[in-house]
Amino acid sequence: MPVSFFLVLSALLFSIGVYGVLARQHAVLVLLSIELMLNAVNVNLVAFSAYLQDAGLAGQVFALFVIAVAAAEVGVGLAIVILIYRNRASVDVDDLSLMKW
Amino acid sequence: MNLLLFAQEHSEEVIESSKQGFFSDFMWLVPLLPVLSFFVILFFGKKLKDRGHSVGIAALSIGLLLSLVGFVELAAGNAAVEKSWTWFELGEHFHIEFGMNYDFLTGIMFLVVCTVSLLVHIYSTGYMHDDKRYTIFYAFLSLFTGSMLAMVLANNMMMLFVGWELVGVCSYFLIGHYWEEKENSSAAIKAFITNRVGDTGFLFGIFGLFVLAGTFNINELNHLAEEGTIGGTSLTIVALLLFCGVVSKSAQFPLYVWLPDAMAGPTPVSALIHAATMVVAGVYMTARMFILFEHAGSALDVVAIVAAITMVLAAILALIQDDIKRVLAYSTISQLAYMMAALGVGAYTAGVFHLFTHAFFKALLFLGAGSLIHAVHSNNMSDMGGLKDYMPHTFRTFMIGSLGLAGIFPLAGFFSKDEIIGGALRSASESHQAAAWIVLIAAIVTAFLTALYMTRACVMTFWGPFEGEHEPHESPGSMVTPLWVLAAATITVGFLGFPIIGPFQDWITVPGHEHHGFETLYNIVLPAGATLVALAAIGLGLQLFLFKKWRYDILASPFAWTYRLVENKYYLDDFYLKGIVRPVQYKLSAATYWSNQKILDGAVNGVAAGVLAVARPTYAVIDQQVIDFAVNGAAGLTGYSGGLLRYIQSGNVQRYAAFLFAAVAGFVALFALTS
Questions:
Q1: Is B657's Cβ below 8 Å from some Cβ in A?
Q2: Between these two residues, B546 and B198, which has the higher pLDDT value?
Q3: B651/A contact by beta carbon, under 8 A
Q4: How far apart are CA B628 and CA B202, in angstroms?
C-alpha cells in the first residue's frame, strides 16, 4: 500500500480531532478529540517508520512514547475536569471563561 | 596596619650601619598608637565605662615605653634609623615618600611629647571630670599627640607638613572646646587663621626647596645645603619662607597674637600646646633643618633678631597680665623666642636643650595653674592670693616650676638658659655679628623680666589674703601626681646638660661643631652672673609685689603711654583687626559684594533673560505643538488599538485554539507555497 493512504487517514483523523476540540462544549469530548489528534500523529509516525525502512524503529518507539504521554495527559486532564465539575457543577468549556478581561 | 607592615618589608635602608637597634625599627608605632587611640575613642569611647580616657593613657604609656627603649638603644651607640617607601609618584622626578627618621633629635622629642602628653591625659581625668564633651576631648588629645609625633618622625618635608597641619587643626578643635561662648570659638578661629598666614609661607618654602633641590627628604636637603649644591639668594629666600611657618606656629613676633587667646581652651590643652605638641613644632623644624638654615646666607640672623624682639616684648607683656594663664602664655612666647634665638646664633645644642627642659617646667606651671583654676574657679590672679596654705602640693610644685623658669640652680631652666646666653656671648665675641649682640642683650633682659613676672605671679597667687569667694581645696590625686612627676623632672633633667659631663651635648650635635671644653668665663662666671640677674629680679619682685615698699603710679607719670602701649599689647591686635581684618571685612567684602551684585549678577541675569527669550517660542511651538502632538498621538493610537485587540481576549479557550489552528494552517500554506 502506498504511504499516501496512511497520510490521508491520518489527516482525516487529525481534522476530526481539530473539529472536536473547536466545536464541542463538553470538556470530556474535547479531551477525547485531543486523543484523536495525537493518534493521527501516531499513525503518521508508524507509517513513515515502515515506509523509510527505519532500522532502529525510532518512529514506532516514538509512537509508544506519545501513547504513554497521552495517557498521562488524559489522567491530568480528567482530574482537572472532575475538580471543575465539583466546583461549578458544569463541565461546559464555554462557562470556563474566568480569564476573560 | 597590614599596609604598614607590608611596606616595612619593602623599605630600603638609606643609612648604612653596622649596628642598629632592634626597637628603633618600630618607632613608627609611637605615632601610630595615639592615632589608633583617636579612632577607638571616637567610635567606641562613649560606650566604654571610663568614657575613653584609659585608651589614650594606654596608647601613650606604650608609646613612652617604646620611646624610652628606642632612646636607650640610640644612647648605647646604635645608629639612627631612616626608612622610607614610596607613597606615590608623579612623573619621573616627583616622588612623595612615606618615611621615618629616628635619631637623637626625634628621640628627645618623642620622650618630651609622650611624657607630657601622658601626664596631661592623667591630669585631665581629674580636671575635665564633669565635662560633657569628655570623650571627644580625649579623642582629640590623642590625635593631637599622634600628629605631633608623626611630624617629629617624618623624614621628608611633605610628611612633616601633614603632621604640622594636623597639629594645627587639632589645636583648633581643642582651643574651641568650650565653643558655646563666642569668645572661645573666636579664639580658636584666630589661632587657626593666624597659623594659616604663616603656613602659606611654609608651604611655598617647601615648594621652593623642591624646585631647588628636587627632593623632599630632610637629610638630603641638609646634605645638599652643606655641600653647596643649593645655596645663594634663592636658598635664603626659601629658608625665610620656611621661617614664616615657624613665626606663626611657634608664636614669634609679629604673629604671636594667637597664643594668648588660645588660653580659651581647657588648661590641660594649654599645657600640651605650650610644652609639647604645638608651639615647639616650629623650633623643632628649625632645628631639623638647621644645617640648611646655617648655609642660607643671613636667614639665621633674621631668625635671631625676630626672636630677640619677641622675647623681650612678650616678657614685658607677661608682667602686666592678670589672667594667670596669659602670664604663662606670654612666658611661653618669650621662652620659644629664647630657643629660636639660640638656633639663630648657632647654639644648636643649647636651643634644643632649652626646648627639652622648658617642656617639663612649662607643663608643670600650666598644670599647676589648672589646679589653681580648678580650686578657685577663676583665671584671674586678683581672685586668688594666699593659696599656699590651702593647696600645699600645688604651691610647692608651682614654686619649683617658677624657679626652674627663672633659672635658679639646680633646676632645669638654669642649665639651658645659661647655655643659650653662653652661646650668644660666644657667637658675639667670636664672629662679631650684630645679631648675636642683640640676642645676648635681649636674653639677659628677658632673664631678668622672666624672674620678675614669675615672682609677681607667685606672690599674687600664693601670698597675701585670699580674695575668692568660697574656700579653695587641694586638687585630687589624679591632678597632683602629674605635678609632682613634672616637678621631679624639672629638678633632674637639667643635669643631662651639665657643662662638659652632661650627655646631652653628645646626643644633640651638628656635624662640624666642636664641643667646648671647660672655660672659666662660660662655665662659672656666666652662670653666676645669670643667677645674680635672676635673684635681683626676684628680690625686686618681692619688694614690689609682696612687701610693696616702692610704689610708682605709672599712669600719673609721663611714662603713662608706655603702660598704655603694653596694656594694649603694642596695638598689634588692633592693627590686625583695623588694618587687615576690618578692611577685608568691610571694604574688600563691600567691593566684592558690589562686583557680585552688578557684574556677576548682571551676567547671570543677562544669560537668564536670553535663555528665557529663546525658551518661550520654543515652548509654544516645539514643545506644545510638535512634541505634545507626537506624545499624545502615540498614547491615543496605543489606546485605540488596544481597544480593538481586547475583543480577541474572549476567555473562550476554544476560540483561542481556533486561532492557533488557523495560524498553523496559515504557516503550512505559506510553507507549501514558498518551497
A1: yes
A2: B198
A3: yes
A4: 63
Instruction: Establish if A82 touches chain B: CB-CB under 8 angstroms.
Output: no
In angstroms, what separates the C-alpha of A75 from chain B's closest C-alpha?
A: 20
| Residue B582 in domain | yes
Architecture per CATH, domain A3-91, reads as: Orthogonal Bundle (1.10)
Nearest CA in chain A to B658: A22
**Cα Rg of chain B, angstroms:** 34
A84 touches chain B (CB under 8 A): no
Cα of B507 vs its chain's centroid, Å:
25
**CB–CB of A22 and B653 under 8 A?**
no
| B646 shares contact with chain A (CB less than 8 Å) | yes
Residue B87, burial from CB neighbour count under 10 angstroms (0-12, 13-18, 19+): middle
Residues in B touching A99 (Cβ below 8 Å): 651
Contacts of B661 in chain A (CB under 8 A): 18, 22
Q: Where is average pLDDT lowest: B6-15, B206-215, B519-528? A: B6-15
Which grid coordinates are listed for B537?
A: 629680679
CA dist B541 and B453 (Å) reads: 8
Contact A18 B661 (CB under 8 A): yes
- Residue B229 in domain: no
Residue B603 lies in a domain: yes
The beta-carbon neighbor of A98 closest among B649, B651, B658 is B651
Name the residue among A23, A98, A101 with its Cβ closest to that of B646: A101
Measure A22 CA to nearest chain B CA, in Å. 5
CA distances from B434 to B338, B431, B440, B586 (A): 17, 9, 10, 43
The answer to whether the Cβ–Cβ distance between A93 and B657 falls below 8 Å is no
Which amino acid would we find at residue B145?
A: T
Helix (H, G, I), strand (E, B) or coil at B388: coil
Residues B286-323 have pLDDT tens digits of: 888 888 888 887 888 888 888 888 888 888 888 888 88
Helix (H) or strand (E) holding B82: strand B81-90
Within-domain flag for B41: no
Residue-wise pLDDT tens digits, B521-578: 667 777 788 888 888 878 887 777 777 666 666 666 666 666 677 666 677 777 777 7
- Retrieve residue B50's grid coordinates: 571610663
pLDDT tens digits along B488-514: 888 888 787 777 667 777 777 776 666
- This complex has an ipTM of 0.72
- State the average pLDDT for chain B: 81
Chain A touched by B669 (CB under 8 Å): no
The per-residue pLDDT for range B23-80, each reduced to its tens digit, is 777 788 888 888 888 888 888 877 777 777 888 888 889 888 888 888 888 887 777 7
Task: Give yes or no for B658 touching A (CB within 8 A).
Answer: yes
Å between B657 CA and nearest CA of chain A: 7
DSSP H helical segments within B377-511, as ranges?
Answer: 392-406, 412-431, 434-462, 477-492, 504-507
User: What is residue B464's three-state secondary structure?
Assistant: coil
CB contact under 8 A, B651 and A22: no
The range of the structural domain enclosing residue B593 comes to 571-644
Whether the pLDDT of residue A50 is over 50: the answer is yes
Find which of B650, B653, B659, B668 to mutate to test the A interface (most A CBs within 10 Å of its CB). Answer: B653
Distance CA A82, CA B273 (A): 92
DSSP B391: -
Buried b (16+ CB within 10 A) or exposed e, B345-355: bbbbbbbbbbb
Return the pLDDT at B7.
Answer: 41
Listed by start position, the domains of chain A span 3-91
